[in-house]
Amino acid sequence: MTDVIVIGGGVIGLSIARELSSSGKETIVLEKNERAGDVTSSRNSGVIHAGIYYPENFLKTKLCVHGNRLIYEYAKQKKINHKKYGKFIIASNKTELLNLEAIFNQGKKNNVEISKVEKEKVLENNPGLIFLGALYSPSSGVIDVPEYVTALEGDIQHSGGLISLRTSFLNAKKKKDKFIISCLAEEEFTIESKYLINCSGLSNELTLKNIEDFPEDKIYKNYYAKGHYFKYSGKSPFSNLIYPVSGQHSLGIHVGFDLAGGMRFGPDVEFINEIDYSFNESLKSKFIESISQYWPEINTTKLHPDYTGIRPKITKPNEKMKDFSIQTFADHGIKNLINLQGIESPGLTSSLAIGKFVTNLL
Ligand SMILES: Cc1cc2nc3c(=O)[nH]c(=O)nc-3n(C[C@H](O)[C@H](O)[C@H](O)COP(=O)(O)OP(=O)(O)OC[C@H]3O[C@@H](n4cnc5c(N)ncnc54)[C@H](O)[C@@H]3O)c2cc1C
């Protein structure tokens, strides 16, 4: 018998478990893989976002803005490698200029620090870019995700929590005031818990089908939106994150960095039917076309396949962006169950804020 079972040891499950175990709840994270944070949490841009793009009344906005502040503080405190690079959002044509204005207004509504900047300011440390207008977001940066995951794990263990690796959640039944949870590690076993929190990311639909009495109409369908990254060998001419004006399902093929200063481009967006991380090298020409619009000097021989990631979307390809979904008893009718779905970008940035938010819900 334990207080809380968290399904999924990505940055979301770990952040929630960290907050709960530090507040005195006996917490166990079930993670089916050999290591925590090995799925979507490791297949992203590693960018600490500011919270500019999302509607002001979205949970996403609130949690991203709060999470941005928390993650910088945490990174400093735990000596996690990170850097506040600052980000320029650039528009390359007239339509994008209009969109840039809309992004600026949204950023202001969200109370995020953002400014319109002169071309010279952008080009000072980012030579060779072609664009018509730009915005600057000083609070955007990059964090070393593996170091972040290790720090969260350390905190959980320090406050007596447990991360049970190679342990799959199979199903849960509610019996009076507790959940009876079946798991598979080396063998099958059950554990009882007062609270159950689902953060199983891309596997959410399956997890929810295995929670007894969870209403089917409250399960969001997962739409897998795959993204590719190409790395750029050699020295980067850019000192800031460079984002073109965003598309409907992503923030565009942008310039990002690892913390060793290596530069990469991505991610693109492709909706797929099954989880598949293979790399489609033929996308190189599409990437070159897109990058050349703002950086015509690109040396295409320096662009090499890097990795892919899959966004756990609950938004259909032609639908307007949905908010993070964090369901409680009021939504699904099961007491002491919290269910998180659609935690796509900016989930990494928001993770510590989500930890606090869910703890408050409990
Ligand atoms: C291409 C891409 C770029 C992104 N860029 C950014 C960015 O720059 N900044 C940002 O803030 N966010 C970004 N994100 C979003 C961010 O990566 C996610 O929001 C975040 O990683 C979600 O974490 P999670 O813990 O919910 O999911 P996951 O990391 O997928 O964790 C879920 C865990 O549950 C486990 N699990 C599943 N089923 C079971 C089971 N039955 N039993 C036990 N364990 C189970 C899995 O093994 C997994 O470890 C990006 C995402 C993608 C795909």
Counted up, domains total 2
Average residue pLDDT: 96
Note the overall shape: elongated
Instruction: Give the DSSP E fraction (strand runs of 2 or more residues).
Output: 25-35%
> Helical proportion?
25-40%
Query: What is the fold-level CATH name, i.e. the topology of the largest domain?
Result: FAD/NAD(P)-binding domain
CATH architecture of the largest domain: 3-Layer(bba) Sandwich
Distance between the amino and carboxyl termini: 18 Å
The arrangement of helices and strands along the chain is EHEEHEEHEHEEHEEEEHEEEEEHEEHEH
Estimated radius of gyration: 21 Å
Summarize the structure in words.
The chain has 362 residues and is α+β, with helices and mostly antiparallel strands. It has 2 domains: 2-45 and 146-221 and 323-361, FAD/NAD(P)-binding domain, CATH 3.50.50.60; 87-138 and 223-313, D-Amino Acid Oxidase, Chain A, domain 2 (2-Layer Sandwich), CATH 3.30.9. Helix content is 28%, strand content 28%. The chain contains 9 helices and 20 strands. It has helices spanning 11-22, 59-78, 94-109, 119-125, 145-158, 204-209, 284-292, 329-332, 347-361; strands spanning 2-7, 27-30, 47-48, 82-83, 87-91, 115-117, 133-137, 141-143, 162-164, 168-175, 178-184, 188-198, 223-232, 241-244, 254-257, 263-266, 270-272, 303-313, 325-327, 337-341. Strands 1, 2, 9, 10, 11, 12, 19 and 20 form an 8-stranded mixed beta sheet that branches. Strands 13, 15, 16, 17 and 18 form a 5-stranded antiparallel beta sheet that branches. Helix 1 (11-22) packs parallel to helix 5, helix 1 packs parallel to helix 9 (347-361) and helix 2 crosses helix 9 (347-361). The mean pLDDT is 96. The structure holds flavin-adenine dinucleotide. Flavin-adenine dinucleotide binds next to helix 1, strand 10, strand 18 and helix 9. Flavin-adenine dinucleotide binds at residues 7-13, 30-33, 38-41, 43-47, 49, 168-169, 199-203, 207, 227, 267, 309-311, 343-349.
